[in-house]
Design a protein that fits this description.
152 residues, five-stranded mixed sheet
Length: 152
């Protein structure tokens, strides 16, 4: 009977391990930001026969120290430069998914667009562009909707 219990435990442990799917070299993000970049263009108004929905898109995501409109050159939502320190940049995959390891702190998260411009359509009551706060030992889910060519 002990043999069967040991055998059953071994098979169960093997099955649980074998069913875990991970990419080679992939490590789980424990602190930072992850999300999806989606793109909307054209008529996004709901209506009969309309099936407009944002789609995941590959973009470079730029993470700056917190920036306000006064720290940026250009006109919202497309800026030509941000004058705070660039902390990190990452390219989303073709479905728009991205993740980046960051220390706890406050950041501005923008995407790279045509002609080298930076996109941010969100700000808070302090005027911070695309604000994001990473807390200790947490991953902030931060989705970005690039919609400067959309009509609502």
């Amino acid at each position: 009977m002990k043999f069967y219990k040991a055998f059953l435990c071994g098979v169960t442990l093997f099955a649980a391990t074998a069913c875990t799917v991970r990419n080679a070299g992939q490590t789980e993000l424990k602190e930072g930001i992850s999300g999806q970049v989606t793109y909307a263009e054209g008529n996004m108004m709901p209506g009969p026969g309309q099936k407009a929905a944002p789609k995941g898109i590959q973009r470079t995501v730029f993470i700056y120290e917190t920036a306000t409109g006064a720290d940026a050159e250009g006109t919202a939502p497309l800026f030509t430069a941000v004058r705070t320190r660039l902390v990190a940049k990452v390219t989303s995959d073709t479905a728009g998914n991205y993740s980046v390891k960051l220390k706890p702190g406050r950041y501005s998260v923008l995407t790279g667009e045509e002609e080298g411009k930076l996109f941010s359509s969100v700000s808070n009551d302090k005027g911070e562009l695309s604000p994001a706060e990473v807390l200790p030992n947490e991953v902030l889910k931060y989705n970005i909707l690039v919609n400067y060519k959309a009509v609502y």
